[in-house]
């Protein structure tokens, strides 16, 4: 199965480097998406540009694909299911959940000009980053790409209710499956109301592709096997 890998904020397709070979060894075909504005053209990209880039990768897949989004890109993965419900076999959300219809894609930080630079590790102290080494943190900061505010502060618009028929797996890194169930019960993930979701725990911080790449690749391969 083709496994489409979408990076979260500030990262390009290289974030998936350490999971590609283990996925290939499992018999599946990974495709790390180069998002416009995050390592891909145009640099002044919009959210629609990113949606179109993901949809184009889905269109090029050999059959229905497993679409994986990390962090904020969990919304991009869900938007792919919205735009291509018949071509997405399952959506996997790693450390994130889809934004509500009509809300901002990722309006967590104030823009500096028209860009959202990486805000520094103080914003991610604790379980998010405890398992990252100082070397990994430094490498992350050097590689971080400011995200256009035309992406981060764009309004999310879903178009096709058939997305709700696409199976969902949530991989829980710095939080637990029990946390997700609690948030859902409290109505904090309205886009997923009423949907069945597979929850998988992984013992890592927010970036398991850096700190637990073999475990993450194994989880994704196993999900693809049963999809």
Describe this protein's structure:
The relative contact order is 0.19. This protein is globular. The protein is α/β, with parallel strands linked by helices. Helix 1 (17-25) crosses helix 8 (213-225). Strands 2-1-3-4-7-8 form a six-stranded parallel β-sheet, with helices on both faces. The chain has a two-stranded antiparallel sheet with strand order 5-6. Helices cover 32% and strands 16% of the residues. The chain has a single domain (2-225), classed as Alpha/Beta hydrolase fold, catalytic domain (Rossmann fold), CATH 3.40.50.1820. The protein has helices at 17-25, 47-59, 73-83, 134-143, 149-152, 177-185, 208-211, 213-225; strands spanning 2-6, 29-32, 65-70, 88-94, 115-116, 147-148, 168-172, 197-201.
Q: Over all CA atoms, what is the radius of gyration? A: 16 Å
Shape, per Cα inertia axes: globular
Output the CATH homologous superfamily.
Alpha/Beta hydrolase fold, catalytic domain
Q: Can you give the mean pLDDT?
A: 96
Q: What is the makeup of the main sheet?
A: 6 strands, parallel
Number of domains: 1
Low-confidence stretches: none
CATH architecture: 3-Layer(aba) Sandwich
Kindly provide the name of the CATH class: Alpha Beta
Helical residue percent?
25-40%
**H-E order:** EHEHEHEEHEHEHEHH
Domain AB hydrolase-1: 3-218
InterPro entries: AB_hydrolase_1, AB_hydrolase_fold, Sec-Metab_Biosynth_Hydrolase
Protein name: Putative esterase
Pfam family, one: Abhydrolase_6
């Amino acid at each position: 199965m083709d496994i489409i890998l979408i990076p979260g904020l500030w990262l390009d397709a290289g974030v998936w480097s350490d999971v590609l070979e283990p996925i290939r060894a499992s018999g599946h075909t990974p495709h790390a998406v180069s998002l416009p504005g995050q390592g891909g053209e145009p640099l002044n990209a919009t959210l629609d540009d990113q949606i179109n880039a993901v949809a184009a990768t889905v269109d090029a897949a050999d059959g229905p694909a497993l679409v994986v989004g990390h962090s904020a890109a969990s919304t991009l993965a869900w938007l792919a299911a919205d735009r291509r419900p018949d071509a997405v076999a399952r959506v996997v959300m790693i450390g994130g959940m889809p934004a509500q219809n009509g809300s901002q894609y990722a309006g967590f930080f104030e823009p500096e000009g028209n860009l959202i630079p990486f805000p520094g590790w103080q914003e991610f102290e604790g379980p998010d980053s405890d398992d990252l080494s100082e070397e990994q943190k430094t490498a992350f900061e050097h590689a971080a790409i400011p995200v256009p505010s035309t992406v981060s502060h764009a309004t999310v618009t879903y178009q096709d209710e058939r997305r709700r028929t696409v199976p969902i797996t949530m991989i829980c890194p710095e939080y637990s499956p029990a946390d997700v169930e609690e948030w859902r019960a409290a109505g904090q993930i309205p886009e997923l109301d009423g949907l069945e979701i597979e929850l998988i725990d992984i013992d890592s911080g927010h970036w398991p592709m850096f700190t637990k790449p073999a475990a993450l690749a194994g989880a994704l391969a196993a999900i693809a096997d049963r999809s």
